[in-house]
């Protein structure tokens, strides 16, 4: 993880960021504003969502825009038009379904001066498919649970060590994750979308937030223990300098050619074993913990986009605790 150096262009006076599918990500808005202030940049934070009037992050932004659903054919054209009209300099996606279309359209955004913070399509495809994730990890010598399709498991049920874990291949936020005790229970699952079945891991669950610079170099890896989880997102966590997870981050980054910016992966630690079971090619929900520990990914992204380089370092505080709580935003009639 090499030291970073700022280039010779110096800090521009102002920039404009567009946060897409902003939803509830007020903390991410705050992290970008704090980072801009630290760099002496005047940053306008724009946000968009399907219904911005019902998005707390859109309400927290300087301006907000309504956009079509992510899966709609006019989603990318709508974002391009916002970026062109509002002179956006950087676009940051926040949810998995928009990563593939944004990765495919990255050149179109670059043509109008917009830096889209997204990895290459091949990386997004691996991270977005949990079966592909398992197969890629095992093929590249990274510890991971063995996974298969439900049909493959049911075709040779005696070869598996039950219980197993079943979940949507393209799911997130812990949606529809189910422990299945036997083949009969697996057959009974309501699988209206593609599922993956994998070995059931036991131990302590960790997330590792990593930052990969534009040159493809891993600059920082911050593991945190997921002490308590709600709706698939860490509610209570603590940063830990865990050697096995940091080594896994190095192997992961070295193999994922085309990865850039913020990513995260989840692993289950049991003794010296730390198999990875999920990769997210975007900001993780627990990023604010890494940020408060000193791994300021948002500042490093602004440095890369607007200052000609980055000072990213693997220098952060171990033992930083995050205790999330519910807050409310009120909008006058």
What is the radius of gyration? 20 Å
Helix/strand/pairing class, anyone?
alpha/beta
Shape: globular
Total domains, how many?
A: 3
What ranges have pLDDT less than 50 throughout 5 or more consecutive residues? 2-11
CATH superfamily heading of the largest domain: ATP-grasp fold, B domain
Count of DSSP-assigned helices: 12
Sheet with most strands: strand arrangement: 14-13-10-11-12-15
**Percent of residues in beta strands?**
25-35%
Task: Specify the oligomeric state.
Answer: single chain
Helix and strand succession? EHEHEHEHHEHHEHEEHEEEEHEEHHE
Count the strands?
A: 15
CATH architecture of the largest domain: 2-Layer Sandwich
**In CATH, what is the class of the largest domain?**
Alpha Beta
If you consult CATH, what is the topology of the largest domain? D-amino Acid Aminotransferase, Chain A, domain 1
């Amino acid at each position: 993880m090499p030291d970073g150096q700022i280039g010779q262009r110096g800090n521009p006076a102002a920039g404009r960021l567009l946060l897409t599918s902003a939803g509830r990500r007020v903390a991410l808005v705050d992290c970008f504003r704090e980072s801009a202030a630290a760099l002496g940049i005047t940053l306008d934070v724009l946000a968009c969502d399907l219904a911005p009037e019902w998005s707390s992050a859109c309400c927290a932004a300087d301006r907000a825009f309504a956009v079509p659903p992510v899966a709609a054919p006019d989603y990318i054209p709508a974002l391009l038009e916002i970026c062109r009209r509002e002179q956006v300099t950087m676009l940051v996606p926040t949810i998995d379904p928009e990563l593939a279309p944004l990765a495919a359209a990255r050149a179109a955004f670059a043509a109008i001066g917009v830096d889209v913070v997204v990895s290459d399509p091949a990386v997004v495809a691996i991270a977005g498919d949990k079966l592909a994730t398992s197969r890629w990890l095992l093929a590249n010598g990274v510890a991971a649970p063995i996974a298969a399709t439900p049909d493959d498991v049911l075709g040779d049920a005696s070869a598996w060590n039950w219980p197993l874990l079943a979940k949507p291949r393209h799911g997130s936020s812990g949606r529809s994750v189910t422990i299945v005790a036997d083949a009969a229970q697996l057959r009974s699952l309501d699988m209206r979308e593609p599922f993956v079945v994998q070995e059931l891991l036991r131990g302590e669950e960790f997330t590792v937030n990593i930052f990969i610079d534009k040159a493809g170099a891993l600059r920082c890896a911050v593991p945190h223990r997921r002490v308590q989880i709600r709706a698939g997102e860490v509610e209570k966590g603590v940063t830990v300098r865990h050697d096995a997870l940091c080594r896994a981050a190095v192997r992961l980054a070295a193999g994922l050619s085309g990865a850039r910016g913020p990513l995260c992966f989840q692993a289950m630690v049991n003794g010296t074993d730390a198999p990875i079971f999920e990769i997210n090619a975007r900001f993780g929900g627990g990023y604010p913990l890494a940020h408060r520990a000193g791994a300021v990914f948002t500042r490093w992204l602004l440095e890369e986009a607007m200052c000609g380089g980055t000072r990213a370092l693997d220098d952060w505080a171990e033992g930083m605790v995050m205790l999330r709580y519910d807050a409310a935003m009120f909008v006058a009639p």
